[in-house]
Write a structure and sequence with these properties.
The complex is a heterodimer of chains A (239) and B (217). Chain A has 239 residues and is an alpha/beta fold. Chain A is built from 8 helices and 10 strands. In chain A, helix 3 packs parallel to helix 5 and helix 4 packs across helix 5. Chain A is globular, with a radius of gyration of 18 Å. Classes of the chains: A alpha/beta (239), B mainly alpha (217). The interface between A and B is medium-sized, with 27 and 22 residues.
Chain lengths: 239, 217
C-alpha cells in the first residue's frame, strides 16, 4: 500500500511528573488503513490517542495528523480527526437530534434536517431522535457520539476501545461503519486491551509495551493465538 | 448555538434558575427581618443590600456555568471542536447574562415589595446601572467559572478569585444605585457609569482574548 501516512508519530515521549508513559514511540497509519494498538492497562494507549487528538502535548518527539503537527497546529489537526474516547461528549438534557445539531453547528457544518436524520438512522437512533439522552443506555450514547463523525467525516478516526459497551448489533454496525470508513480512504487508530472485534477491523496490529511499540505487524500474518502469545510476552517483558 | 443549548438545558432542568431564585428570596426575607421597617436606616443600606442579593445569587448561578460540560466530558468535546473558542465564551456569557437579568428583575420587584419602595420613577436609570454592573460581573464570572471548572475546591476558589476583581465594579454600582434610588439624575453619577462601561469593555475583551488559553488549560 503506497498511500500517504495520515498519522505519523516519531520518537514520541510523554511524561506526567516523573512517570514516563510513552518513550520513543514510532507509528505510521496510512490512508485507508486501520491499526489496532494493543496494550495492558496503563500502557499509554489513551495517552497516545490524546496526543494525536491534541488534548495532551508531547514532552518530546513529533506527532502529525494529515501533515499537521499536533502540538503546533492543533486547530488544523482538530479539523481532521474524530476522537471517540471513553466519554460520549453528549449533553444529557438535550435530545439526540439536538446534540447533533449543537456539535455540528459548533464545528461549522451546515446541517440539514435530512443529513441529521440520515446520521441518526446510520447509528440506528432515528426512533430515539427526540428523546433526551438522559434516558439512553451507555451503548446508545456511544452510537450518538459516533453519529457526530458520520456527519463531520473526518479523515482520521481515533477510537479508544470502540466496541466496549455496545451490544452485538451495535458491534456489527460499528464494524461495518469502520470498514466503510477505511474503504473511503480514512485512517483508523484503535486501542484495546482485549482481543475483540478491533482485530477483525485492523490491517495491522501494534503492541504497546514499555512506552513504545514493541511489535508492529500485518494482521493477516497472525492468528488470534499468535497475537495473544505475543501480547502476553511483550506485556510481561515491559512489566 | 451555545446560548440556545444552555437555555434549553436550563429550561428542562431548571436547576440554576430555581436555586438562584429561592436563594435570592431567602436573602430578601433575611434582610427584611434584620432591618425592619425603619426607612431612615434602610435608605443608607438599601443599595448595598440590593447588590448583595444580586452578587450572592449571581455567584451561585455563575459557579454553575460549566456544570453541563462536566457531564460526559463535554468540556473535552468543546476543546476538540475546530474553530474560534472565544465564540463559546461569548455564548456562555450571553446565557449567564440572560439568566442573571431575569433573576435580578424578579428580585428587584420583590425588593420594592418587601421594602415598600416606589421604583417606577427611577426604574430606567436603575436599569442602566444594573445592566452595566451585571455585564462586568458576568464577564469575569464566566471566565473564572471556566478557570475553576476542573479545580477540586472550585466552590471555594470561585468567589475568592472573583470578588476582589469585582471590587471596583461593586463600588461603582452601589454608589450609582444609591444616587439613583435617592432620585438623582444619571448625570450626577456619570463618573461611576463611565467606570462601569470601561470595566465592561475591559472584562469582556479579556474574556474573549483569554478564553482559548483557559479552555486549553
Amino acid at each position: 500500500m503506497a498511500s500517504e501516512a495520515l498519522i505519523r508519530v516519531a520518537g514520541l515521549r510523554k511524561t506526567f511528573g516523573n512517570h514516563r508513559v510513552l518513550d520513543g514511540l514510532d507509528l505510521d497509519v496510512r490512508a485507508g488503513e486501520a491499526v489496532a494498538v494493543l496494550g495492558a492497562n496503563g500502557a499509554g494507549k489513551t495517552t497516545l490517542l490524546k496526543v494525536l487528538a491534541t488534548l495532551v502535548r508531547p514532552t518530546r518527539g513529533t506527532a502529525t495528523v494529515a501533515g499537521y503537527d499536533c502540538a503546533r497546529d492543533a486547530e488544523r489537526v482538530r479539523g481532521q480527526v474524530g476522537l471517540v474516547g471513553h466519554s460520549s461528549y453528549v449533553y444529557e438534557d438535550l435530545t439526540a437530534a439536538e446534540n447533533l445539531t449543537f456539535w455540528a453547528t459548533l464545528a461549522g457544518l451546515k446541517l440539514t434536517e435530512a443529513a441529521r436524520a440520515a446520521a441518526l438512522a446510520a447509528v440506528e437512533l432515528d426512533r430515539a431522535a427526540d428523546e433526551r439522552v438522559r434516558t439512553f443506555s451507555a451503548g446508545m450514547k456511544r452510537r450518538l457520539s459516533l453519529a457526530r463523525f458520520v456527519l463531520a467525516r473526518p479523515r482520521v478516526l481515533l477510537l479508544d476501545e470502540p466496541f466496549t459497551g455496545l451490544d452485538q448489533r451495535g458491534k456489527k454496525w460499528l464494524e461495518e461503519h469502520l470498514a466503510a470508513f477505511k474503504a473511503g480512504g480514512g485512517a483508523l487508530l484503535m486501542t484495546s486491551h482485549s482481543f475483540g472485534r478491533e482485530l477483525a477491523v485492523a490491517d495491522r496490529i501494534a503492541i504497546l509495551a514499555g512506552g513504545a511499540i514493541a511489535l508492529d505487524t500485518a494482521r493477516g500474518s497472525l492468528s488470534a493465538d499468535d497475537i495473544h502469545r505475543l501480547y502476553t510476552l511483550h506485556a510481561e517483558e515491559a512489566s | 448555538m451555545v446560548v440556545w443549548k444552555d437555555l434549553l438545558v436550563e429550561r428542562r432542568s431548571k436547576e440554576t434558575l430555581n436555586a438562584v431564585f429561592f436563594f435570592g428570596l431567602l436573602l430578601l426575607f433575611l434582610f427584611q427581618f434584620a432591618l425592619g421597617p425603619d426607612r431612615e436606616r434602610l435608605a443608607g443600606t438599601l443599595p448595598g443590600l440590593l447588590w448583595l442579593g444580586f452578587i450572592l445569587s449571581g455567584l451561585l448561578g455563575l459557579g454553575r456555568t460549566f456544570v453541563a460540560e462536566r457531564e460526559n466530558d463535554c468540556w473535552e468535546g468543546l476543546l476538540l471542536t475546530p474553530g474560534d473558542k472565544s465564540a463559546i465564551y461569548v455564548g456562555k456569557l450571553a446565557g449567564n447574562l440572560l439568566l442573571m437579568l431575569v433573576v435580578e428583575t424578579i428580585l428587584l420587584v420583590l425588593f420594592g415589595f418587601f421594602f415598600n419602595l416606589e421604583l417606577a420613577a427611577v426604574l430606567p436609570a436603575l436599569a442602566v446601572v444594573i445592566a452595566l454592573g451585571t455585564v462586568a460581573f458576568a464577564a469575569v464570572g464566566t471566565l473564572f467559572a471556566a478557570m475553576t471548572a476542573h479545580v477540586r475546591a472550585r466552590e471555594l476558589l470561585f468567589p475568592v478569585l472573583l470578588l476582589p476583581v469585582e471590587a471596583p465594579v461593586l463600588l461603582a454600582t452601589v454608589k450609582a444605585t444609591e444616587a439613583v434610588l435617592l432620585g438623582e439624575p444619571l448625570g450626577s453619577v456619570a463618573h461611576w457609569l463611565k467606570l462601569l462601561a470601561a470595566a465592561d469593555v475591559v472584562y469582556v475583551a479579556v474574556g474573549v482574548l483569554t478564553f482559548d488559553f483557559v479552555l486549553e488549560g
